[in-house]
């Protein structure tokens, strides 16, 4: 395995692990010692080759198809991740309550869960945008345009929604 391929594979492994909110130590705990933190870390850095069998077992542990872990298999061939969705909480505070109430409550819940009270901005996930779209009874792209028009989301958010639609 080329070192570049190993590094790309490792980056995919790290991305899946972090998406699941697991630290390397967390993987070891959750797997009850089956996956040692030092071994998974070396796979992620590309320092250690992973066999096909071990890769399949790791994919099963993470609950993802093996192909999700292989380099060059990103959906739509997009190598670049979609832009982050960042709510401007200061602008949100100036949107009338009858329009922004559900979003304000949702943002407050996320802040509470994260213990993040900087009050200026709040990063949200694609899943959060989909949930908000259901709450607002709109498609994610229509809601994104609404939030951009309120000044709550940056226009870059369109690319995140377009990335999801493709």
From TrEMBL:
CDD domains: BldD_C_like (cd16837), HTH_XRE (cd00093). Residues 13-69 form the HTH cro/C1-type domain. It comes from the Bacteria. SMART domains: HTH_XRE. This is Transcriptional regulator. GO terms for biological process: negative regulation of DNA-templated transcription. InterPro entries: BldD-like_C_sf (IPR038099), BldD_C (IPR037664), Cro/C1-type_HTH (IPR001387), Lambda_DNA-bd_dom_sf (IPR010982). It comes from Streptomyces cinereoruber. One of its GO terms (molecular function) is DNA binding. Pfam families: BldD-like_C (PF21179), HTH_31 (PF13560).
């Amino acid at each position: 395995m080329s070192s570049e391929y190993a590094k790309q594979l490792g980056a995919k492994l790290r991305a899946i692990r972090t998406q699941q909110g697991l630290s390397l130590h967390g993987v070891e705990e959750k797997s009850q010692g089956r996956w040692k933190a030092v071994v998974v870390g070396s796979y992620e850095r590309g320092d250690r080759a992973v066999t096909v069998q071990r890769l399949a077992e790791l994919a099963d542990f993470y609950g993802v198809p093996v192909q999700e872990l292989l380099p060059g298999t990103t959906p739509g061939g997009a190598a670049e991740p979609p832009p982050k969705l960042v709510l401007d909480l200061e602008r949100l505070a100036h949107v009338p309550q009858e329009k922004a109430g559900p979003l304000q409550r949702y943002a407050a819940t996320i802040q509470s869960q994260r213990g993040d009270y900087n009050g200026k901005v709040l990063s949200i996930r694609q899943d959060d945008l989909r949930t908000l779209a259901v709450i607002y009874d709109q498609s994610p792209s229509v809601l994104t345009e609404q939030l951009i028009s309120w000044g709550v989301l940056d226009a870059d958010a369109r690319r995140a929604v377009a990335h999801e639609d493709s």
